[in-house]
Amino acid sequence: MLRRVLASFVLLFPTTAVTQSVPTYTGSVVVTAAGEEQPEGEVSAAATVIEAEELRASGAVSAAEALRRVPGTLLLRSGGDTDVASLFVRGTNSAQTLVLFDGVRLNSPYFGGYDWSLPMTSGLDRIEVVRGPYSALYGADALGGVVQMVPARAEGTRLRALLEGGGDGWRRGELEGAVRAGVWDALISAATRDGSGTLDNDDFSSRSVMADLGMRVGGEGRLGVLVRRTASRTEIPFAGPRVTPDRWNDAEETLAALPLRFATGVRSDLEVVISRVERDLAFRDPDDPDGFTSSDTAADATGARAVWRTTLGAHRVTVGGEWQRDEVSDASSYGLNLDAERQTTRSLFVQDRAPLGGGFEIVAGARWDEAGTWGQEVSPRATLAWRRDTLRLWTSFGRAFRAPSLGELTYPWSGNPDLRPERSRSAELGASVPVPALGGEAQVVVFANRIDDMIEFDFSAYRFGNVSSARQDGVEASWANSLAGGTMRFGVTWLEAADGKGESLLRRARWSGSAVWSGALPLGVSGEASLVFVGARDDLDPVSFSRVRQESFVTASAALERPIFDWLAVRLRLDNLLDRSYEEVRGYPAPGRRVFVGVETAVH
Asked: What is this structure's pTM?
């Protein structure tokens, strides 16, 4: 039945193009959905904002932990805290979701995707997740959606510090300071975490530091300098059936950006960002009997983006351009694989948001991207929305693409310089409905996504090729309301994801969901409790490489806080509260119950 509804829906909207509504602040701000600030309550799109208060209340150390609660997303981790974590948005793979940090692209140009084991929550103001095709605004990789991490800004003077310890050698520390004086503002944050797994050679560590300095330009303009560096080391206890007592990975990511925004007239502004992202990966295993004992990869990107927004009558118009140069070098114990391989991408885009009367609004946009290595793409998107008070209905259609990575294009023997981009067409129908009697709001989104020319390794030709297709159909439902002196949030996703032959895509659960309660408890304690459910899904056995059925799992977490003084609080955090034994990825046991105790101080 659902397939027929979705098929009819796609036929009804064959050529439409982007979304959203007229800004009037009513709560959380969303930047990613329309490319500029909009109140979350007025965004006609499937958007979720995880605010700094929620990140702090949950005790989430990494951004990955917070993303588990977002409808339409599934995050799976290969073992412990710094092991590789993959994000599947609406059933797309981990290379088909765009990741931004304050507007700067983080996806790797080597083999695509982003490792969610890296980013910690320290220094973040919020995490925004918008689901659906967004290549019309952001270009490549935005087939499933966009996840943007937004750094905190200094709104006043404050100092915050956190120390936390727990079993298995867990140590966590955070320090954040902010100051604003006249036209100047500065925020500096630093974080560290260390711990051990349950096996030999299973330790991990992460370090992160960020500095955001700014100067006010004109009334609301700002010239900034943003630098962020994250580094992690992960020990690897086994490879298939073999114990590896000395194997490890190092990952480093350094971002530097110069953002500038200033007014160019009444309700007009220009935003320019120049950025540089450097990624360094190192692997060592001196005991590998096959001789693959080391590899080193540098995957860097230099970019510039300019966006001009203006109001013309009833129209809100956005015009922009982007330039990015990617460069990858890779060498291993077998020799040099890539020697500063490069590709340059140029882009132009436009978007118009306009009211139609009677509560209706249309947002339409398109983007042109071109690179000498894979050609050019045009990506349209349009949304027709209707809003009355806090009731929102919308329907949208869009096209998106993922460009071939430099590894897929040029890696020795397996690279294919004739690869075409992966292309998708997607449609969705959404409703956000207030329920005043229960003090809450419900949202339901039905979506259909089709991807062609997917890039996979073709064993018959022994190189990468555009050899497959995929479809993802689903329903996202969420509910938030006041309950028992706090707030209750539910989210559930039904997904049917299959390849062109009808076989289920790996690691995509048909059912997944979460439930989170947060609020006040007796004796001055505040807290949060959460459940995350991931249904059964197909996976690959790491030893035999045969397809297996991975069992579903439910995991519970809790966080409690009790102020001692105005400036000091004691915190208790519990992960996997019920001590469940489960594997998110086949062959990689998840940590058991863990208890963490900490103290936090804050001075304003």
From this structure: 0.93
